[in-house]
Write a structure and sequence with these properties.
The protein is α+β, with helices and mostly antiparallel strands. The protein is built from seven helices and eight strands.
């Protein structure tokens, strides 16, 4: 099993991941414009980490974040393991290392996972269910909150850092992260939280 280090990714590295990897790792309707990420980074409302070994990027995690009265709240924006390393435990180890390292002092860490109930085909439902099982088996918990963002249906999960937020608090902090990232009219038209 490969060992790795967690690094905070630089803007050039983030741009390279965006240009070379994200289109293979995520559906096109889930990839936001690079300018949105860059502006959030500049405001201190975004952070990106990589699992690296020998200068090689094995996995990456991008987070939107907002400073709330109870502390920093983070939302996994993108999380991916290099395609040739999937199924080898790298993703779970990276997730646990993030929880024990850079995420340990967060007030709340949320993650969206595609809701299998809204998958358009049986094959896509199977992929969504596999992702959901991965996150649940690696310590995340279902908050009972669902959302639709830019037409994509999500279940909202939480990492076990601090106290598990109740559904009302989850909806509030989830909305706070998106309100920080999006203009009011975009938030109002593109984000629905249930």
């Amino acid at each position: 099993m490969r060992s790795f280090e967690i690094e905070t990714l630089t803007l050039p590295c983030i741009r390279e991941i965006y240009a070379r990897r994200m289109s293979a790792d995520f559906p096109p309707d889930e990839i936001k414009p690079l300018g949105v990420i860059e502006r959030a980074l500049a405001r201190g409302e975004y952070v990106c980490y990589g699992a690296t070994a020998g200068g090689e990027l094995l996995a990456y995690a991008f987070f939107a974040q907002v400073d709330e009265p109870g502390g920093m709240v983070s939302l996994f924006d993108y999380y991916a393991v290099r395609a040739d390393l999937r199924g080898q435990g790298v993703g779970g180890r990276f997730l646990k290392a993030l929880m024990a390292g850079p995420l340990r002092d967060m007030a709340c860490v949320l993650l969206e996972v595609d809701d299998p109930d809204f998958a358009p085909t049986p094959a896509e439902r199977a992929v969504c269910e596999r992702r959901l099982r991965f996150y649940l088996s690696n310590g995340l918990r279902d908050t009972g909150v669902t959302a639709e963002v830019y037409g994509v249906a999500f279940r909202v999960l939480a990492l076990p850092v601090g106290a598990m937020p109740d559904p009302a608090e989850t909806r509030r902090v989830y909305a706070a992260v998106y309100r920080a990232m999006l203009a009011k009219e975009v938030f109002d038209s593109k984000v629905r939280i249930f």
